[in-house]
Amino acid sequence: MTTDIWGWVHDTHRQLNEAGQHRLATALAEIAGHAVDGRNEQLDAMYPEALASARALGLPWVEVFLRHWRLQNLLNKRHQGEAAMAEAVSLLEFAHREETASCPQSVCAVQDFTICHANIDGPGYVPERLAVLEETLQRVEPARACFDCLSREYADTLEDDGRCEEALGHLDRAQARIQAAGEQVSLSFGHSRASALHRLGRHQDALDAYDTAEHAYVAGRNRLDDDDRRKLATGRALNLAALGRTGPALDLLPPADEADRYADIRHRWARAVELLAEAGALPHGELANDADLGARLARWTGHLDTAGSHRPCLDLALIAGRLAVARGARTVALTLAATGERKLALLRRTDDGVADRLAALRAAAEALPVAELPVPAADLVDWLAEHTPAAETGADLLAAARAELPADAPAVVANLAGVLGMLGHGRAAADLLWAELEAGRGQDHAAGMLGSMLIEAGDGDGVRRLADRLLAAEPADAHWLRARWAAAEGRWAEVGEHCAGVLAHEPDAINTRRLAATAATRTGDHAAAQRIYLELLEHALPDGEAGPGDLHRAVQEPDLWHLITAATANRDWDTVRSVGARIGIEFDRPSGPVDEEWQIVTLRATRANGSTAEFPAIRTGPATARVLPVLGDELPLNHRDVVVFGPAVLNDPPGTDEEKERWRPTFELLTLLDPAGYTTYWLDGAWPGDEHWVALRTALQAEGYGVWAYSGDHYAVTDPADHGGEGDGLPGIYAALGVPPTASAAEADALLLALTAGWPHPLSWLDLAEAGGLDTARHREIVERYGL
Amino acid sequence: MSQGLPPGHGPAGEFPAADNLRTTEVDLGGLVSVLATHLYSTPLVALRELVQNAHDSHTRRRLEDPDHTAAQLIRVSGDPARRTVVIEDTGAGLTEPEIHAYLATVGTGYTRMLRELTGNQDLIGAFGLGFLSAFSVADEVTVTTTSHREPHLGHRYRSRGGEQYSVEPAAPRPVAGTAVELRLKPEHAHLADEDALREVLARYCVLLPVPVHVGEDDTPVNGVPVPWRGPDQDDTHAARMRFAAAFGRRFEPLTAFPLRPVEGRTDAVGLLWVQDGGTYGSSDNRDLAVYLRGMLLSDDARDLLPGWAGFIGGVVESTRLTPTASREDLQRDDHYRALQQALTDAIVDGLYETARLHPAAWRRILARHGQDLLGAALCDDRLFTLLADDVPVPTSQGDLTAGALRAAGGGAVHVALGSGGGFEEMLYRAMQVPIARGDRYAVLPFLRRYAQLRECRIVELGSESGNRELFRDPLHPLPAEESAWLGAALTDEGEQLVAARFDPPGLPLVLVPDREAELKARIEDDQADARIPSAALRLARAFTARTEGTVKARLYLNLASPAVQDLLTAYRAGHTGSTTAAALLRSLKVIMASAAGPAAGDLTAALAGIGTAVSALTAAMPEGLAVPESLAVPGPRPGPQGGPADPPATDEPPGAPR
Questions:
Q1: B402 and B355 in one domain?
Q2: What is the per-residue pLDDT for A650?
Q3: pLDDT for B419
Q4: Chain A: closest CA distance from residue B484 (Å)
Q5: What is the SS3 assignment for B179?
Q6: Nearest CA in chain A to B501
Q7: How many CB atoms lie within 10 A of CB B470?
Q8: Among residues B361, B382, B373, which one has the least CA distance to residue B401?
């Protein structure tokens, strides 16, 4: 095992390039840098393809290399614990197969595996980690880079065991062996040393250790990169804060959003902020011990929670909890204590003081005064709606009300969960609601709020779990939840199925019908949509009978608009007219298809590539419009087609009257009703001047053709008179010609020839000539001459 | 140094006698060797330095003699036969004291002094090393010069090796100016080739305002108008394209756009372009030339461009960048970083402009650099917004935009992770929707962000969550008794039956291996003891012990499939053919699984099962065993259920209905 990994990378890179596998070669050269420097986007972009290539080419060593560096990134830069364990075990196994056993990077898979355990519960796995590392260090010579990594990992493990002096001693011995082998220690060595010194309370020594490591690194012809600078700055800020040198600490501490982006500095960053807050150095600029900081730390804690990094999650919850105590946020502090307690139960070892620290947090949080309620507890929810205090205050009030009220206080609990969710404690909020459900309380409130939170968080497993739970006792609720989840995911067919499930149990449901009708419209089933809206009218409360609590059960104007839209798509003009009359629409004629001239509107349609296009149309009825432009083939529509649009106005009307004059409502295109049969061809060439152009357009329109100019002021074509090609060319015109279904391409060609006969520069209509099987040479010549 | 040259060798006659020699005022022996072997990576740099001196000579003339209006000119001529290169200018020329002071003294270059005194930024030279660099390529250097202040005098400086030199009177030059003649070292003889000179100087001097001619050429090598320069500045798109086409060495430009100074941040100005040329293979074709006061400073300053911009070429000039001592690289200071940012912004702005004003070029860029742009979009939010709808993504049905993928996927974007297994592959083929190739560069993260931006669903096939998307829960759970019968009839050992609904309905079932169980089996295998170090293995086994591992694969049964519905109907009706039908499905399962990869199940037995089923279905129908009316399948759908009932088969699996 003496092969140098970088030598191997170098050789393999060359071989891959020689074999034409350039992209894999590039990945091999770059992936470690992306991984180590936290360029997660670039790593994620590169990794899947590289891994697939390595597998397809049968290069197990390359696979080990790629998987190792990506795992390093997951572990060190994204701080994953349990979440990465399956991959860590899988890589460990893969890296020790016959075909990979002698790969120099195999040993790194062992290190990844121990780091994964360190992330889950560093102190809890000390004996196992030491055993694995000892076993592995025996396989590695000091000259290899792995020796550096493994030695640091060994020292970090000792530190996790509280044996910081031993850790320093181990680093010294390892450094001596590495240097005796003619190599230099890495910059990370300095971080390990500083970490142990910090833990011993030797903060100045820790700062010196950073300096020494940095100088040695730079003297060794290395250059610090952003990642190095960020980590050094955070470590130094932490130790400066610990020394009470708050000014320099604040200067060095990276901004909070940087810690948002780079998970690996978060713990030190948070601890430094805690020290700064204790020293009275906050607020400083935008940094303060406030609810924003609390929400940020709660999000980070949640990330570690989900990633299965139990111990770091607990450690961060402790810092966040103490900061919450310091700012008097009782409920948040207690929530963090509870998060910590949940994590504590997952640790293998709790005798290292962590349980005491957690107990101290809980005691300090409980010692904070309980919020005084401004109104009787039962009225609090209404009071909050009116006064909207800051979120942490609201949480304290709701918690106080909950304590006062008998166990069954569903609205208070649901609101408390909602506030906690806002403050970054999504898991705690969900747990609170689950507990209500388990206790058989507040079925409506808790299930409703929980369902919304789960849908919001995109937690499909949670939705399924809740729906399954509801199915036996509240089948309608279960179907309703699934229907909303499917709607959030855009699975409209399923939305329809689940809405039908609701209606089977609750035949009078109104919102269910609204959602079902939306689903029918989305799947293009306008007949079903119309039927559902008509049913909705039948089952809705009569006008004026709905109280404030069930307003949704009354017919609302949008329902009628949607019905008109569906009826229009179904050409049920009688319904369009009768429902239209109900909302005050006066039609020019009493019967037959509605085809009037209202105003110009903007339609929004989706192009073939998924982007949206907007174009003008003349509204011809409540839900119909006739397309004005001649359109290209990226839209399935054309000139004079009559289309149905959705009733919702997509743009806000402007504020001033003057702007309102020019404003046009925008609607979403729903479906094509009556195609007009126009075919689009393109006219291209030099601009003939206003007079010629208007004459052409007028004459074409008189013959039933459509014309729509697409080129703007910038469009220029080559001037054939400019032989050197130095000039800026001639102003150009690029326009779509809509040929009506009654005219052939040959007729269109003849008409254009006649109408443009006297022009200074000819126009080209190559695709029209091709479609008509006519002579295209003339057009090709124009294209060539004018550089079209 | 060796003295004396064979008579007649060299243009200026014999080499001067030893007593005329003076010594350069530095230890040149060391310096020249450093210059020659270390400081400059290529001998061409010496040429650059000398052309730069010639240019500075013109600038000096303008400063010292503002009334002088004669045309400025630099001419570089090569003579391969004589192995010489001559660089001539019609600038200020040198007096004899100036020769001693400035040609032979390192570190006090006149240029630098003048620039410090006048603040004139047109002067290029900075280190006074320029002239001496000639000795890195030449054995012998002869300078013939006439100062504009002493037009009647001529001087000839000569030196071999640079450590000692002589200065002698010479005939005055017809106009003031200087000619530097290099007698090239044999290993640098190729520099005398005028074609090579043209190519090199065209790049080095492209931004120099003084025309540079090679040999007898009438047209200067730097004749292409610089779009952002000059009194009759032509900063049109056409002018930019002309410049880019003339400058780009490796690739034709697809479009070009400007880099403009950013107030308070950087003075850098220049031109950037999108290169043509396939970038598959070597995706990093960043090509940036940096000019300082008109002269090429760095031919490969790619690090100034963002890492994702592998398709960009460009030319940039700035007075604020500081060269390193080698004058071939740039110091990574604040100006450097400001320029990096300005370049990133200019590229994104330029691409926006291209999309807006030059749609045809934009389409070519998308077609040519789609893969790179996918990755680039991930690194820059504005770029992502620009590209989200336009950039093509590789899919199972060719390149499609994300929107087209979404439209074809019924509102969801499907992407295959390609993480092996194989059943997904088969399922997707059956689904006939285009599936993005998640194992290609940047595709997966791009589509994830697209789905976020456009608020659509992304189905990651091959991931646990993606597979759950494929297999929807049935509307109504299967009764336990039916589930048990199906399990017995369809599953093999280690397989768990899961009732589900999925597309396409034509596919009755699919077998999905359990990856955790696979891993557990490998870790807990006895052979692992020999391979994996024991402490690590113990810890790994502690992990896999948490997985039960009894379920090796899940058999998803498609309740939306007519075949399964008919099977269940037959079973519920007590139809004896249901057993044969189930056996057929079981065979189908094994055959499909084996096609998807090395899977459990006995393929031979499965194939034999098909034969058994067919023979059972086609066996002569005993009298009186016609299909009961209630079991007839309505509608035209043919199938075994619509045919005659089965005779009792001999090899029915246990658990068949009564």
A1: no
A2: 86
A3: 56
A4: 21
A5: strand
A6: A494
A7: 20
A8: B373
Residues B288, B301: Cα–Cα separation, whole Å? 5
Residues B314 and B431 in one domain: no
Residues A431 and A541 occupy one common structural domain? yes
Are the beta carbons of A501 and B475 separated by less than 8 Å? yes
Closest to B445 (Cβ–Cβ): which among A44, A85, A490?
A44
Residue B495: domain span:
480-514+551-621+629-642
Spell out the residues 6+ positions from residue A667 whose beta carbon is closer than 8 angstroms to its own: A601, A602, A603, A604, A625, A645, A646, A647, A648, A649, A650
Q: A577 and A719: one domain?
A: no
The number of folded domains in chain A is 5
Q: How many structural domains is chain B composed of?
A: 4
Alpha helices in B146-260 (DSSP H): 194-204, 237-247
Interface test with A, best of B415, B417, B439, B537 (most A CBs within 10 A): B439
In a domain, A260, yes or no: no
> Does some domain include residue A567?
yes
List b or e across A657-677, with b for residues whose CB sees 16 or more CB atoms inside 10 angstroms.
eeeeeeeebbbebbeebbebe
Q: Which residues pair with B460 in a beta bridge?
A: B415
Please give the residue range of the domain that contains residue A687: 679-785
Specify if A696 maps to a domain: yes
Last residue of a domain, one of A649, A674, A699: A674
Please state, rounded to an integer, the average pLDDT across all residues of chain A. Answer: 90
CB atoms within 10 A of CB B65: 14
Whether B192 and B277 map to the same domain: the answer is no
Of B303, B336, B370, which marks where a domain is finished? Answer: B370
In chain A, the residue whose alpha carbon lies closest to the alpha carbon of B375 is A45
Judging contacts by C-beta atoms under 8 Å, the chain B residues touching residue A725 are 238
Q: Based on the fold, state whether residues B174 and B276 are members of the same structural domain.
A: no
Q: Are residues B354 and B412 in the same domain?
A: no
Picking from A641, A674, A707, the residue at the C-terminal end of a domain is A674
The helix (H) or strand (E) run that includes residue B412 is: strand B412-416
Do residues B456 and B586 share a domain?
A: no
Low-confidence ranges of chain B (pLDDT < 70): 1-42, 104-130, 230-234, 249-250, 277-283, 324-329, 418-425, 596-601, 620-658
B314 forms beta bridges with: B272, B288
Query: Which pair of tokens denotes residue A647?
Result: 């009733």
DSSP B175: S
CATH classification at residue B503: 1.20.120
Q: Are B489 and B448 within one domain?
A: no
Indicate the pTM of the whole model: 0.70
Contacts of A249 (CB under 8 A, 6+ apart): A236, A237, A238, A240, A241, A272, A275, A276, A281
In angstroms, the separation between the Cα of residue B594 and the nearest Cα of chain A is 19
- Measure CB to CB from residue A22 to each of B282, B442, B456 and give the nearest one: B282
A374 or A52: which leads in pLDDT = A374
* CA distance, residue A381 to nearest chain B CA (Å): 33
Any domain includes B569: yes
Q: Chain B closest CA to A384's CA: distance in Å? A: 32
Angle between helices B359-379 and A40-56 (to 10 degrees): 100
CB contact under 8 A, B465 and A134: no
| One domain for residues A485 and A572 | yes
Question: What is the value of ipTM here, to two decimals?
Answer: 0.71
The DSSP symbol for B287 reads E
Q: Is residue B524 part of a domain?
A: no
Whether residues A110 and B536 touch (CB distance < 8 A) is answered with yes
Q: What is the pairing mode between strands B553-558 and B495-500?
A: parallel
3-state secondary structure of B497: strand
A331-344 core/surface letters (b: 16 or more CB in 10 A; e: else): bbbbbbbbbbbbbb
Cβ atoms within 10 Å, residue A379: 12
CB A107 within 8 A of CB A146: yes
Do A301 and A385 fall into the same domain? no
